[in-house]
Amino acid sequence: MRNKIAAITDHTLLKPEATESDIRQLIDTAVRLGAYSICISPSLLPVSVPDSLKIATVVGFPSGTMKAEIKAAETARAVADGADEIDMVINLALALTGQFDALEAEIRAVRSACPGKVLKVILETAVLDDETIIAACRAAEAAGADFVKTSTGFHPAGGATVHAVKLMADTVGGRLGVKASGGIRTGADALAMIEAGATRLGLSATAKIVEGA
């Protein structure tokens, strides 16, 4: 089970004070644990990692309030700097006011900026009701995203919940992956998210979670 958790984990360090030294330690830990990828801030790219490890980064992070063309430009730069995967934060106001065509267009702009790369769409599910989560998942799928993701881990409303993960998994029906992130602190938390339908985990306490599973 430890290996199963590690193999779908984005070992994450997005604290604004993170340094290059911190990232080297992150990489070493990810390799030791057998994590799928590291997820770091775009300003810390490029980095060198073993072939076994993917590099993910975030755009529009953490508020999602940047204009779509800014997110697209940030994405293009991250890809040029070696990112394999992009985790974008949606403009929550678009979802909350039912502007799902505009939300789809925003996601599509980022999708166009990272052809051939994995795109994960962060919905910040703790802020949204079930109906809005479903509609946002559908917009992400229509725009060509590869994953829908629960949370940044930075919003005061909270992070991933089993309910949100199951709702997302039921909505995308295996056509997209589901990434659970934010507030996952124990092996039991991680297993509950996997059982609910998560196919990727975003973890910062990866060693504690994996070794305690």
Automatic annotation (TrEMBL):
A molecular-function term among this protein's GO annotations: deoxyribose-phosphate aldolase activity
Subcellular location: Cytoplasm
Protein name, UniProt field: Deoxyribose-phosphate aldolase
EC number in record: 4.1.2.4
Cross-referenced InterPro entries: Aldolase_TIM, DeoC, DeoC/FbaB/LacD_aldolase, DeoC_typeI
Function of the molecule: Catalyzes a reversible aldol reaction between acetaldehyde and D-glyceraldehyde 3-phosphate to generate 2-deoxy-D-ribose 5-phosphate.
Main localization of the protein described in the UniProt heading: cytoplasm
Protein source organism: Exercitatus varius
Pfam families reported for this sequence: DeoC
SMART domains with a match to the protein in the record: DeoC
UniProt family annotation: Belongs to the DeoC/FbaB aldolase family. DeoC type 1 subfamily.
Keyword Protease carried by entry: no
Pathways involved: Carbohydrate degradation; 2-deoxy-D-ribose 1-phosphate degradation; D-glyceraldehyde 3-phosphate and acetaldehyde from 2-deoxy-alpha-D-ribose 1-phosphate: step 2/2
